[in-house]
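Recall the central idea of this unit: under ordinary conditions, the amino acid sequence of a chain determines the structure it adopts. In this exercise we apply that idea directly, starting from the sequence alone.
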Amino acid sequence: IHDAVHLTVPRANRSRRPIAGARMHTTTRPMREDEVVVRDGIRVTSAERSIVDAAHAGTDPDQVATAVVQAVDRGLTTRSRLLEAARGRGRRVEGLVQRALPQRSPA
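Accordingly, the structure predicted from this sequence is:
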């Protein structure tokens, strides 16, 4: 578990002053409304956007896998939403997400 809050801002804002206790990340991918949720009154990226962003940024594959499993198990996202979010982010990201998804036996 990290000891900092991770913030994603548009690449155009990369010159923004650092915030104590926060780690800034930039993106050229605009946030779509469906990629933002409100938790405890704070706008945050959805579980699937956060996971694929982390995977794309090179986060350790074991950490990505753990995040995938926990997000699905906690009901924060679904297999299909994660797969959809990973599509178009490159084969490596898509593969990480696919391999990490818990294999469910048919009902």
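The first helix runs from residue 47 to 56.
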